[in-house]
Amino acid sequence: MNIIIVGAGAIGLHMARTLSDEEHSICVIEQDERLAAELNEQLDSRVLHGSGASVETLEEAGIAKCDVLFALTSHDHTNLVCTSIGKSLGARRSIARTSLAMQREQWLYDYAGQFRVDYLFSPARLAAVELAKSIRNPDCLVVEEIARGRIELQQIRLEPGSPALAIPLRELGLPARVRIGAILRRGNLIVPHASDALEAGDLVTIYGHPRRLAEGLRKLQVNDKNEGELNVVIFGGDDYGFALAQTLEGGNFRTRIVEKDRRICEKLGRELQNCTIINADATSLHELKEERVGDADFFVAATHDDEDNVMACLQARDLGAKACLTLIHRADYASAIQRSGAQLGILDAVSPRVAVARELSRFVTADEATVLRTLPGGIEILSSPVAENSPAAGHTLAATDWPAASGIIAVQHGNQATVPAADDKIEAGDTVVAIVAPEAKAALLKLLA
Predict the structure, then answer these.
(1) What's the pLDDT at 335?
(2) Cβ proximity of 232 and 135 under 8 Å
(3) What angle (nearest 5°) sits at the alpha carbon of residue 364, between those of residues 407 and 75?
(4) Rounded Cα–Cα distance for residues 257 and 264 (Å)
(5) How far, in Å, are 21, 151, 406 from residue 433 at the CA level?
(6) Torsion angle of alpha carbons 18, 20, 25, 26, nearest 10°?
(7) What angle do CA 374, 380, 383 make, to 5 degrees?
(8) For residue 165, what is the DSSP state?
(9) Under a CB-based contact definition with an 8 Å cutoff, are residues 400 and 391 in contact?
(10) CA distance 215 to 174
(11) Helix, strand or coil for residue 405?
């Protein structure tokens, strides 16, 4: 595939190396002349010195034949202008990096629609979601955010003693627009009906609004699960720590952020409602003891300094913290710590570069539909636009003959996304997120194409 990467910072460089190893045709655009010259010697890819927001530079890079345009600079406006121009000049897909602040504003303004961006992402948000999975859902095998975080999908193994066993799904009392989308039972995929019942050992895929989903999970899990408030301490209140605290808001957590920069503390105090902000240095053993970090169920190191993160985790573990998670910016270091985690007492190490590369790699495909996740049993969660002349366009879900081994998880219309009900209508230009078995994929896509 022909891929253009604008911005050769840590994330852009990691993407360029990853995709180059997969033998794609890569062109990197970098505005810093010195860095562009260095990369020209290091990368087995074409490197151009120039601005990604320049028509001339994009045309020189081959934008008319570009399959995927990645705008990965650290400047929001450059990325948005780049993708808008790139799409108008022929790029098939456009992906843009954005700051955490701008991603939060997507609730208020449809940047993606206005600037013709197929996918907007924040590295801090992606890393925070990875860290939060181990905290929010220790019993869940899969956690996936859908439609910019408005909908969440989780997969759990149903244990003996679950209150949901042998009860028809219609009688479970799940919250509104929280659904069980698939059951994997003894290797067989079931897309369930309201009359179906769950069995012990079932691998259950459930989805809905994140806050409602927590209530739905409680109806499936053994009654003593997730009882009581979990004590979470976050070291670092910059973008990553803030994003993690925001991700945990609304859950059953008592969250504290330890941050040594007073100005950041004041900002966090204004923007976070259910979080205690502590102005202290978490690299100091004395201050960790003073703040009773040893009582934490989870200690999460989320600063920009890898060494500080690891050392703070080791100290917190020695003080008695039950589980430690850390952010590691260098991908090779994160891999090494993951392998040695048991010896170090670190539950997981998350690299933002790896999280971004894994997220963006799903867009490197010739299909119009994007596979968001592949689940056990070959089940796929995919996202597809609804074409103008699609058989599904203009019809309600109930009036559309969907393949048996499939289900609609979400319908996204502009900046709004919802788990649809039977009488909700799908329109041309919407994006549909579906769960589908391999044998039903072609039929499902035919209805949307």
Answers:
(1) 81
(2) yes
(3) 105
(4) 11
(5) 30, 10, 11
(6) 70
(7) 110
(8) B
(9) yes
(10) 8
(11) coil
Which residues touch 5 (CB under 8 Å, ≥6 apart)? 12, 15, 16, 19, 26, 27, 28, 29, 70, 72
Structure tokens, 68: 């995927």
Tell me what pLDDT residue 138 has.
61
Amino acid making up residue 214: A
**321, two tokens:** 């913290």
Q: Is 413 exposed, middle or buried (0-12, 13-18, 19+ CB in 10 A)?
A: middle
- pLDDT score recorded for residue 319: 95
**Apex 251 CA angle, 247 and 253, nearest 5:** 95
| pLDDT value for 141 | 65
Which structure tokens are listed for 138?
């220790």
Please list the rounded mean pLDDT of every run of 10 residues in the chain (449 residues). Answer: 94 89 90 93 91 96 96 96 97 94 82 90 90 74 70 87 92 91 85 90 89 85 67 96 89 91 95 92 91 94 95 94 93 81 83 88 78 80 89 92 88 81 90 89 91
Both tokens assigned to 404? 């048996």
- The domains located in the chain, with CATH, are 2-121 (3.40.50.720), 139-218 (3.30.70.1450), 230-357 (3.40.50.720), 365-448 (3.30.70.1450)
